[in-house]
């Protein structure tokens, strides 16, 4: 099976992990190249992030990498207020970016997405851009109108919609209540969810196999279906708490058919990436 990874990071100085250095080693690109070879990963959606002073310049770093490696399909970080100008959008497209990434920790940041310029929204729709969102349920609750206008794009919510760390698996009703804002978006056919960052739903984070995530994933499978779920490793941050092989071992997906598993672990992402 050829895989495609819907959520990785690559930083010029390495991700400053739990121990003050990247858990992938001194050369994250070389480490991921080895991972690609061993696990048969054809392409990766590389998530731009410049939300802290130590990450400034990540977009330009990814542009350089994308020019050298065809498997790198980056999305450019933008603040919640969106692209600065249409010229900036055009530049990023020319640099090989396939869309944008935004981090929305709360309703204030999410509300800013509704104020993105009509020109930017039109251009993103024409480009069939991928929009990767790290959005909490509180943020997601105010996104419906903005996302409905981005119907030419594919919108991907990272880390099962960030329901928060759980010490024990919630009941189906409790999981549904926590994820209600995301589940309410299932009627938008261009919205999908990444099966990524399961450690962020576990307390402690290293509690593999992350059984606390299972009720959320069951709900997402039922509401969105396997054609709108996208596996992502969250390299390199995930390596602080699990191995790469463990990011691929998602027991809750065992009930899927082989063709459905192939879709989640690569086919869905390959379908939406521009050729």
From TrEMBL:
Organism of this sequence: Micromonospora sonneratiae
Amidohydrolase-related domain: residues covered: 5-272
Domain of life (superkingdom): Bacteria
Name of this chain's protein: Amidohydrolase family protein
Gene3D superfamilies: Metal-dependent hydrolases
A Pfam family annotated for this UniProt entry: Amidohydro_2
The family this protein is said to belong to: Belongs to the metallo-dependent hydrolases superfamily.
Segments forming a coiled coil: none
Stored InterPro entries: Amidohydro-rel, Metal_Hydrolase, Metallo-dep_Lactonases
